[in-house]
Design brief:
135 residues, mainly alpha, 2 domains
Amino acid sequence: MPKRDSPVTAQAVSSFAGAIGQILVLDLVFSIDSIITAVGMTEHIEIMIIAVVVTVILMLVAATPLANFIERNPTIVMLALSFLLLIGTTLIAEGMGFHVPKGYIYAAMAFSAVVEILNMWVRNRRTRRKPGPGH
C-alpha cells in the first residue's frame, strides 16, 4: 500500500485536482454560453438566471457519468472533436458564401456515430469475453 506522500498519491491528487479544474472551467464556459443564448432569446432577467442555474446544475450532475463514459470510451472524444471541426468548417464555408447541404453534414455525422457505436459494442464484447487471471 503506497504511503500518503508517495509519488502515486501525489499523482492521483494532481490528476483529481486537474479534473476538478477542467470541470470548473467547462462549467464557466457553458454558463457563459447559456447566458449569451438566454440574452439572445429573452429580455427577462429571471429567465436568464434560471437558464444559468439549470445549466450549471445539469453539468454538475452529468459531469461524473460523462467522465466515466469518456474514460471507458476514449475514442468518443476524437469523434466529438471531429464533429466540432466539421461544423466549424461548414460555418466558415457558409460565412464565405458557399452553401453546404445540411443533409450531407447530418449523414456524415450519423454514419460516424453509428461506426463508433459499433466499435464500442465490439470492444465491450471483447473485454467481457477475456478470461480473468488463472483461467
